[in-house]
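Section 5: illustrative case.
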Protein backbone atom coordinates (compact mmCIF):
# COMPACT_ATOMS: atom_id res chain seq x y z
CA UNK A 1 0.00 0.00 0.00
CA UNK A 2 1.07 3.56 -0.72
CA UNK A 3 0.29 6.60 1.41
CA UNK A 4 -0.17 10.10 0.01
CA UNK A 5 2.09 12.78 1.50
CA UNK A 6 1.37 16.42 0.64
CA UNK A 7 4.03 18.85 1.75
CA UNK A 8 3.66 22.45 2.90
CA UNK A 9 0.56 23.56 1.02
CA UNK A 10 0.38 26.48 3.42
CA UNK A 11 -1.20 29.90 3.20
CA UNK A 12 2.16 31.68 3.59
CA UNK A 13 3.81 29.76 0.77
CA UNK A 14 0.91 29.39 -1.64
CA UNK A 15 -0.83 32.74 -1.16
CA UNK A 16 2.29 34.76 -0.27
CA UNK A 17 3.78 37.61 -2.29
CA UNK A 18 5.71 35.23 -4.59
CA UNK A 19 3.12 33.09 -6.33
CA UNK A 20 4.02 29.48 -7.06
CA UNK A 21 4.34 28.40 -10.67
CA UNK A 22 1.19 26.68 -12.04
CA UNK A 23 -0.51 26.98 -8.66
CA UNK A 24 -4.08 26.42 -9.80
CA UNK A 25 -3.10 23.34 -11.79
CA UNK A 26 -1.27 22.04 -8.71
CA UNK A 27 -4.38 22.42 -6.56
CA UNK A 28 -6.42 20.46 -9.11
CA UNK A 29 -3.76 17.74 -9.20
CA UNK A 30 -3.56 17.50 -5.42
CA UNK A 31 -7.34 17.31 -5.04
CA UNK A 32 -7.43 14.58 -7.68
CA UNK A 33 -4.74 12.66 -5.78
CA UNK A 34 -6.67 13.10 -2.54
CA UNK A 35 -9.76 11.66 -4.22
CA UNK A 36 -7.83 8.70 -5.67
CA UNK A 37 -6.21 7.97 -2.30
CA UNK A 38 -9.54 7.98 -0.47
CA UNK A 39 -11.24 5.76 -3.04
CA UNK A 40 -8.39 3.25 -2.63
CA UNK A 41 -8.40 3.48 1.16
CA UNK A 42 -4.86 4.86 1.19
CA UNK A 43 -3.73 6.93 4.16
CA UNK A 44 -3.32 10.68 3.66
CA UNK A 45 -0.67 12.75 5.42
CA UNK A 46 -0.19 16.51 5.15
CA UNK A 47 2.87 18.28 6.51
CA UNK A 48 2.99 21.90 7.65
CA UNK A 49 6.40 23.55 7.99
CA UNK A 50 6.77 25.60 11.17
CA UNK A 51 9.58 27.77 12.47
CA UNK A 52 10.66 28.89 15.92
CA UNK A 53 8.49 31.03 18.21
CA UNK A 54 8.54 34.65 17.08
CA UNK A 55 9.08 33.77 13.41
CA UNK A 56 6.41 34.45 10.76
CA UNK A 57 5.84 30.68 10.58
CA UNK A 58 5.77 29.95 14.30
CA UNK A 59 3.39 27.15 15.36
CA UNK A 60 -0.17 28.44 15.17
CA UNK A 61 0.65 31.22 12.70
CA UNK A 62 -2.00 31.80 10.03
CA UNK A 63 0.82 31.46 7.46
CA UNK A 64 1.30 27.80 8.42
CA UNK A 65 -2.36 26.85 7.97
CA UNK A 66 -3.15 24.57 5.04
CA UNK A 67 -4.80 26.30 2.09
CA UNK A 68 -8.57 26.04 2.12
CA UNK A 69 -8.63 24.98 -1.53
CA UNK A 70 -7.44 21.50 -0.54
CA UNK A 71 -10.36 19.13 -0.09
CA UNK A 72 -9.39 17.70 3.29
CA UNK A 73 -11.28 15.18 5.40
CA UNK A 74 -11.34 14.48 9.11
CA UNK A 75 -9.24 11.31 8.96
CA UNK A 76 -6.35 13.03 7.12
CA UNK A 77 -3.25 13.19 9.31
CA UNK A 78 -1.87 16.72 9.57
CA UNK A 79 1.50 17.08 11.27
CA UNK A 80 4.11 19.77 11.81
CA UNK A 81 7.73 19.59 10.76
CA UNK A 82 10.61 21.97 11.33
CA UNK A 83 13.10 20.63 8.77
CA UNK A 84 12.84 20.36 4.96
CA UNK A 85 12.88 16.54 5.19
CA UNK A 86 9.41 15.54 6.44
CA UNK A 87 10.91 12.50 8.18
CA UNK A 88 13.44 14.49 10.25
CA UNK A 89 12.38 14.89 13.87
CA UNK A 90 8.82 13.66 13.14
CA UNK A 91 7.08 10.32 13.57
CA UNK A 92 6.16 10.10 9.88
CA UNK A 93 8.18 6.93 9.20
CA UNK A 94 6.61 5.18 12.21
CA UNK A 95 3.12 6.27 11.14
CA UNK A 96 3.68 5.00 7.60
CA UNK A 97 4.90 1.65 8.89
CA UNK A 98 2.00 1.43 11.38
CA UNK A 99 -0.56 1.75 8.58
CA UNK A 100 1.24 -0.81 6.41
CA UNK A 101 2.62 1.56 3.79
CA UNK A 102 5.58 0.27 1.85
CA UNK A 103 5.62 3.39 -0.28
CA UNK A 104 4.87 7.07 -0.15
CA UNK A 105 3.55 9.30 -2.93
CA UNK A 106 5.06 12.78 -2.54
CA UNK A 107 3.60 16.07 -3.75
CA UNK A 108 3.35 19.71 -2.66
CA UNK A 109 5.83 22.54 -2.09
CA UNK A 110 8.61 23.60 -2.45
CA UNK A 111 10.32 21.52 -5.09
CA UNK A 112 13.97 22.30 -4.36
CA UNK A 113 13.63 22.15 -0.59
CA UNK A 114 11.07 19.95 1.14
CA UNK A 115 9.99 17.89 -1.87
CA UNK A 116 13.60 17.11 -2.83
CA UNK A 117 14.83 16.25 0.68
CA UNK A 118 11.76 14.17 1.53
CA UNK A 119 12.07 12.10 -1.68
CA UNK A 120 15.71 11.37 -0.92
CA UNK A 121 15.01 10.49 2.72
CA UNK A 122 12.05 8.21 1.92
CA UNK A 123 14.20 5.90 -0.17
CA UNK A 124 16.97 5.93 2.47
CA UNK A 125 14.40 4.84 5.07
CA UNK A 126 13.28 1.89 2.94
CA UNK A 127 10.09 3.30 1.45
CA UNK A 128 9.31 3.15 -2.25
CA UNK A 129 9.22 6.87 -3.02
CA UNK A 130 7.02 8.14 -5.84
CA UNK A 131 7.21 11.78 -6.88
CA UNK A 132 4.23 13.11 -8.78
CA UNK A 133 5.85 14.92 -11.73
CA UNK A 134 3.04 17.47 -12.03
CA UNK A 135 2.27 17.47 -8.30
CA UNK A 136 4.91 19.84 -6.96
CA UNK A 137 5.95 23.43 -7.50
CA UNK A 138 7.90 26.40 -6.20
CA UNK A 139 8.48 30.05 -7.04
CA UNK A 140 10.99 31.62 -9.38
CA UNK A 141 14.46 32.27 -7.95
CA UNK A 142 17.07 34.79 -9.13
CA UNK A 143 18.92 31.89 -10.81
CA UNK A 144 16.10 29.81 -12.32
CA UNK A 145 12.45 29.98 -13.28
CA UNK A 146 10.21 27.69 -11.22
CA UNK A 147 9.23 25.68 -14.30
CA UNK A 148 12.91 24.83 -14.85
CA UNK A 149 13.43 23.95 -11.17
CA UNK A 150 10.52 21.50 -11.33
CA UNK A 151 11.78 19.94 -14.58
CA UNK A 152 15.33 19.67 -13.21
CA UNK A 153 14.18 17.92 -10.03
CA UNK A 154 11.93 15.52 -11.92
CA UNK A 155 14.93 14.52 -14.03
CA UNK A 156 17.46 14.45 -11.16
CA UNK A 157 15.37 12.54 -8.63
CA UNK A 158 14.03 9.94 -11.10
CA UNK A 159 15.76 6.62 -10.67
CA UNK A 160 18.18 6.72 -7.75
CA UNK A 161 15.86 8.58 -5.38
CA UNK A 162 12.30 7.88 -6.52
CA UNK A 163 9.98 6.97 -9.33
CA UNK A 164 8.57 10.00 -11.12
CA UNK A 165 5.00 9.51 -12.34
CA UNK A 166 2.40 11.94 -13.73
CA UNK A 167 -0.72 12.18 -11.59
CA UNK A 168 -3.00 10.84 -14.33
CA UNK A 169 -0.89 7.66 -14.48
CA UNK A 170 -0.76 7.03 -10.71
CA UNK A 171 -3.18 4.62 -9.07
CA UNK A 172 -3.08 3.83 -5.35
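Designed sequence:
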Amino acid sequence: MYALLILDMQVGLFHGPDKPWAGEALLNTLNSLLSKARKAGAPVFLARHVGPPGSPIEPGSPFTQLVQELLLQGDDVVFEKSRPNAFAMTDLADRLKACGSQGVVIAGMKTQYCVDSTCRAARDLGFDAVLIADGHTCTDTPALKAENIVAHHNATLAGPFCRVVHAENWHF
